[in-house]
Amino acid sequence: MAKASRVDPREAGLVAVLLVLAAASWVLTFSQLAGMDMGPWTTPGPVGFFTVTWVVMLAAMMFPSVAPMVVAYHRIQRHRREQGRYAPAGSTAVFVAGYLAAWTAFGLVAYVLYVSVAELAPGLFAPDQGGRYVAAGVIMIAALYQLTPAKNVSLMKCRTPMDFILHRMRPGYTGALRMGVEHGAWCVACCWALMTALFALGVMSVGWMALIGAFIAGEKMLPWKRLANRSVAVALAVIALGVAFAPAATTGMGM
Q1: Which DSSP string do the residues of 67-95 spell out, in sequence order?
Q2: Coil vs helix vs strand at 205
Q3: Of 1, 167, 200, 235, which one is least surrounded by beta carbons within 10 A?
Q4: Quick one: which of 232, 61, 76 has its CA closest to 167?
Q5: Count of CB atoms within 10 A of residue 148's CB?
Q6: 80 with 87: CB under 8 angstroms?
Protein backbone atom coordinates (compact mmCIF):
# COMPACT_ATOMS: atom_id res chain seq x y z
CA MET A 1 0.00 0.00 0.00
CA ALA A 2 1.46 3.34 -1.03
CA LYS A 3 2.42 5.67 1.77
CA ALA A 4 0.37 8.86 1.84
CA SER A 5 2.41 11.93 1.03
CA ARG A 6 2.85 14.27 3.97
CA VAL A 7 2.05 17.95 3.73
CA ASP A 8 4.75 20.10 5.28
CA PRO A 9 2.91 22.55 7.57
CA ARG A 10 5.52 25.24 6.93
CA GLU A 11 5.00 25.03 3.19
CA ALA A 12 1.23 24.92 3.63
CA GLY A 13 1.53 28.01 5.82
CA LEU A 14 3.57 29.78 3.16
CA VAL A 15 0.94 29.04 0.52
CA ALA A 16 -1.76 30.23 2.92
CA VAL A 17 0.11 33.52 3.46
CA LEU A 18 0.40 34.07 -0.30
CA LEU A 19 -3.29 33.33 -0.81
CA VAL A 20 -4.33 35.58 2.07
CA LEU A 21 -2.18 38.39 0.63
CA ALA A 22 -3.73 37.80 -2.78
CA ALA A 23 -7.24 37.89 -1.31
CA ALA A 24 -6.48 41.07 0.63
CA SER A 25 -5.05 42.61 -2.55
CA TRP A 26 -8.24 41.75 -4.43
CA VAL A 27 -10.31 43.49 -1.75
CA LEU A 28 -8.03 46.53 -1.74
CA THR A 29 -7.99 46.68 -5.54
CA PHE A 30 -11.76 46.52 -5.71
CA SER A 31 -12.08 49.34 -3.18
CA GLN A 32 -9.48 51.46 -5.02
CA LEU A 33 -10.87 50.95 -8.50
CA ALA A 34 -14.61 50.85 -7.85
CA GLY A 35 -16.30 53.03 -10.45
CA MET A 36 -13.05 53.96 -12.23
CA ASP A 37 -13.30 51.67 -15.27
CA MET A 38 -14.39 53.48 -18.42
CA GLY A 39 -13.90 50.70 -20.95
CA PRO A 40 -10.88 50.20 -23.25
CA TRP A 41 -7.82 52.34 -22.55
CA THR A 42 -8.95 53.49 -19.09
CA THR A 43 -6.68 56.33 -17.94
CA PRO A 44 -4.16 54.85 -15.45
CA GLY A 45 -3.96 58.07 -13.41
CA PRO A 46 -0.88 59.77 -11.92
CA VAL A 47 2.30 57.69 -11.79
CA GLY A 48 2.27 57.41 -7.99
CA PHE A 49 -1.31 56.14 -7.89
CA PHE A 50 -0.64 53.80 -10.82
CA THR A 51 2.49 52.31 -9.20
CA VAL A 52 0.76 51.54 -5.90
CA THR A 53 -2.30 50.17 -7.67
CA TRP A 54 -0.16 48.13 -10.06
CA VAL A 55 1.80 46.45 -7.23
CA VAL A 56 -1.42 45.60 -5.39
CA MET A 57 -2.88 44.24 -8.64
CA LEU A 58 0.23 42.12 -9.17
CA ALA A 59 -0.12 40.58 -5.73
CA ALA A 60 -3.78 39.81 -6.41
CA MET A 61 -3.20 38.36 -9.87
CA MET A 62 0.19 36.67 -9.55
CA PHE A 63 0.56 35.31 -6.02
CA PRO A 64 -1.67 32.25 -6.58
CA SER A 65 0.20 31.21 -9.74
CA VAL A 66 3.67 32.00 -8.37
CA ALA A 67 3.04 30.00 -5.18
CA PRO A 68 4.61 26.75 -6.50
CA MET A 69 7.83 28.62 -7.37
CA VAL A 70 7.95 30.33 -3.97
CA VAL A 71 7.36 27.02 -2.18
CA ALA A 72 10.11 25.33 -4.22
CA TYR A 73 12.54 28.14 -3.36
CA HIS A 74 11.60 27.97 0.33
CA ARG A 75 12.08 24.19 0.31
CA ILE A 76 15.58 24.46 -1.15
CA GLN A 77 16.52 27.16 1.34
CA ARG A 78 15.29 25.05 4.25
CA HIS A 79 17.24 22.06 2.96
CA ARG A 80 20.38 24.18 2.77
CA ARG A 81 19.91 25.32 6.38
CA GLU A 82 19.44 21.72 7.52
CA GLN A 83 22.77 20.89 5.87
CA GLY A 84 24.47 23.77 7.66
CA ARG A 85 24.87 25.83 4.50
CA TYR A 86 24.26 29.56 4.26
CA ALA A 87 20.56 30.33 3.76
CA PRO A 88 19.54 33.43 5.75
CA ALA A 89 16.08 33.81 7.24
CA GLY A 90 13.76 36.00 5.22
CA SER A 91 15.34 35.15 1.87
CA THR A 92 11.99 33.84 0.59
CA ALA A 93 10.43 37.26 1.18
CA VAL A 94 13.36 38.86 -0.67
CA PHE A 95 12.81 36.43 -3.56
CA VAL A 96 9.15 37.52 -3.78
CA ALA A 97 10.23 41.17 -3.62
CA GLY A 98 12.55 40.61 -6.58
CA TYR A 99 9.71 39.01 -8.50
CA LEU A 100 7.46 42.01 -7.84
CA ALA A 101 10.29 44.38 -8.77
CA ALA A 102 10.57 42.85 -12.26
CA TRP A 103 6.84 43.23 -12.85
CA THR A 104 6.83 46.74 -11.40
CA ALA A 105 9.54 47.73 -13.88
CA PHE A 106 7.41 46.34 -16.72
CA GLY A 107 4.38 48.25 -15.46
CA LEU A 108 6.27 51.54 -15.31
CA VAL A 109 7.66 51.06 -18.83
CA ALA A 110 4.14 50.29 -20.09
CA TYR A 111 2.80 53.34 -18.25
CA VAL A 112 5.40 55.65 -19.81
CA LEU A 113 4.70 54.28 -23.30
CA TYR A 114 0.95 54.62 -22.81
CA VAL A 115 1.17 58.21 -21.56
CA SER A 116 3.67 59.18 -24.26
CA VAL A 117 1.53 57.81 -27.08
CA ALA A 118 -1.58 59.41 -25.59
CA GLU A 119 0.17 62.79 -25.54
CA LEU A 120 1.52 62.46 -29.09
CA ALA A 121 -1.81 61.24 -30.52
CA PRO A 122 -4.55 62.41 -28.13
CA GLY A 123 -7.39 60.85 -30.11
CA LEU A 124 -5.78 57.47 -30.74
CA PHE A 125 -7.33 55.75 -27.72
CA ALA A 126 -10.68 57.55 -27.83
CA PRO A 127 -13.55 55.07 -28.38
CA ASP A 128 -15.29 57.39 -30.84
CA GLN A 129 -12.08 57.85 -32.89
CA GLY A 130 -11.10 54.24 -33.43
CA GLY A 131 -9.74 53.51 -29.97
CA ARG A 132 -11.65 50.26 -29.74
CA TYR A 133 -10.02 49.04 -32.96
CA VAL A 134 -6.59 49.83 -31.56
CA ALA A 135 -7.54 47.92 -28.42
CA ALA A 136 -8.80 44.99 -30.51
CA GLY A 137 -5.53 44.95 -32.46
CA VAL A 138 -3.47 44.86 -29.26
CA ILE A 139 -5.58 42.03 -27.85
CA MET A 140 -5.29 40.09 -31.13
CA ILE A 141 -1.49 40.47 -30.97
CA ALA A 142 -1.65 39.00 -27.46
CA ALA A 143 -3.63 36.06 -28.87
CA LEU A 144 -1.05 35.46 -31.60
CA TYR A 145 1.83 35.69 -29.10
CA GLN A 146 0.30 32.71 -27.29
CA LEU A 147 1.28 30.58 -30.32
CA THR A 148 4.93 31.67 -30.60
CA PRO A 149 8.05 29.71 -29.58
CA ALA A 150 9.04 32.57 -27.23
CA LYS A 151 5.79 32.10 -25.32
CA ASN A 152 6.33 28.35 -25.12
CA VAL A 153 9.89 28.65 -23.78
CA SER A 154 9.05 31.25 -21.15
CA LEU A 155 5.93 29.37 -20.08
CA MET A 156 7.98 26.22 -19.56
CA LYS A 157 10.34 28.20 -17.28
CA CYS A 158 7.35 29.27 -15.21
CA ARG A 159 5.90 25.75 -15.03
CA THR A 160 9.08 24.00 -13.80
CA PRO A 161 10.04 25.71 -10.52
CA MET A 162 12.58 23.15 -9.31
CA ASP A 163 14.45 23.19 -12.62
CA PHE A 164 14.64 26.98 -12.51
CA ILE A 165 15.85 27.12 -8.91
CA LEU A 166 18.37 24.29 -9.07
CA HIS A 167 20.06 25.83 -12.13
CA ARG A 168 20.10 29.40 -10.76
CA MET A 169 20.60 28.97 -7.02
CA ARG A 170 22.53 31.86 -5.47
CA PRO A 171 23.19 32.34 -1.74
CA GLY A 172 22.26 35.22 0.51
CA TYR A 173 19.83 38.08 0.23
CA THR A 174 21.47 39.44 -2.92
CA GLY A 175 21.16 36.02 -4.52
CA ALA A 176 17.51 35.76 -3.47
CA LEU A 177 16.75 39.18 -4.92
CA ARG A 178 18.52 38.36 -8.17
CA MET A 179 16.72 35.03 -8.49
CA GLY A 180 13.39 36.73 -7.85
CA VAL A 181 14.10 39.33 -10.52
CA GLU A 182 15.17 36.60 -12.98
CA HIS A 183 12.04 34.59 -12.38
CA GLY A 184 9.98 37.75 -12.66
CA ALA A 185 11.69 38.52 -15.97
CA TRP A 186 10.75 35.08 -17.31
CA CYS A 187 7.20 35.67 -16.09
CA VAL A 188 7.16 39.03 -17.89
CA ALA A 189 8.39 37.30 -21.06
CA CYS A 190 5.59 34.78 -20.66
CA CYS A 191 2.74 37.16 -19.81
CA TRP A 192 3.66 40.62 -21.14
CA ALA A 193 1.16 40.32 -23.99
CA LEU A 194 -1.63 39.35 -21.60
CA MET A 195 -0.85 42.34 -19.38
CA THR A 196 -0.66 44.62 -22.42
CA ALA A 197 -4.09 43.32 -23.38
CA LEU A 198 -5.23 44.34 -19.90
CA PHE A 199 -4.08 47.91 -20.63
CA ALA A 200 -6.14 47.81 -23.83
CA LEU A 201 -9.21 46.40 -22.08
CA GLY A 202 -8.96 48.84 -19.19
CA VAL A 203 -6.16 48.53 -16.65
CA MET A 204 -8.47 49.90 -13.94
CA SER A 205 -11.11 47.23 -14.60
CA VAL A 206 -11.42 44.67 -11.82
CA GLY A 207 -13.45 42.37 -14.06
CA TRP A 208 -10.88 42.24 -16.87
CA MET A 209 -8.10 42.03 -14.31
CA ALA A 210 -9.75 38.93 -12.79
CA LEU A 211 -10.15 37.31 -16.21
CA ILE A 212 -6.53 37.96 -17.26
CA GLY A 213 -5.38 36.71 -13.85
CA ALA A 214 -7.37 33.52 -14.42
CA PHE A 215 -5.75 33.10 -17.85
CA ILE A 216 -2.29 33.47 -16.31
CA ALA A 217 -3.00 31.04 -13.47
CA GLY A 218 -4.60 28.50 -15.79
CA GLU A 219 -1.77 28.23 -18.27
CA LYS A 220 0.86 28.11 -15.50
CA MET A 221 -0.84 25.62 -13.19
CA LEU A 222 -3.19 23.38 -15.17
CA PRO A 223 -1.61 20.05 -16.22
CA TRP A 224 -2.66 20.49 -19.86
CA LYS A 225 -0.16 23.13 -20.94
CA ARG A 226 -0.90 23.10 -24.67
CA LEU A 227 -4.68 23.03 -24.18
CA ALA A 228 -4.55 25.87 -21.64
CA ASN A 229 -2.27 27.94 -23.88
CA ARG A 230 -4.42 27.45 -26.98
CA SER A 231 -7.62 28.08 -25.04
CA VAL A 232 -6.29 31.43 -23.86
CA ALA A 233 -5.34 32.32 -27.44
CA VAL A 234 -8.85 31.52 -28.68
CA ALA A 235 -10.46 33.44 -25.81
CA LEU A 236 -8.32 36.50 -26.53
CA ALA A 237 -9.19 36.38 -30.22
CA VAL A 238 -12.91 36.24 -29.38
CA ILE A 239 -12.51 39.16 -26.96
CA ALA A 240 -10.65 41.15 -29.63
CA LEU A 241 -13.47 40.63 -32.11
CA GLY A 242 -16.01 41.55 -29.45
CA VAL A 243 -14.18 44.79 -28.58
CA ALA A 244 -13.98 45.73 -32.27
CA PHE A 245 -17.43 44.81 -33.49
CA ALA A 246 -19.64 44.41 -30.41
CA PRO A 247 -18.23 46.83 -27.82
CA ALA A 248 -21.47 46.93 -25.84
CA ALA A 249 -21.09 43.22 -25.10
CA THR A 250 -17.69 43.77 -23.46
CA THR A 251 -18.51 46.75 -21.26
CA GLY A 252 -20.06 44.68 -18.49
CA MET A 253 -16.70 43.45 -17.25
CA GLY A 254 -15.73 46.70 -15.61
CA MET A 255 -17.37 46.13 -12.22
Answers
A1: HHHHHHHHHHHHHHHHTT----TTHHHHH
A2: coil
A3: 1
A4: 76
A5: 11
A6: yes
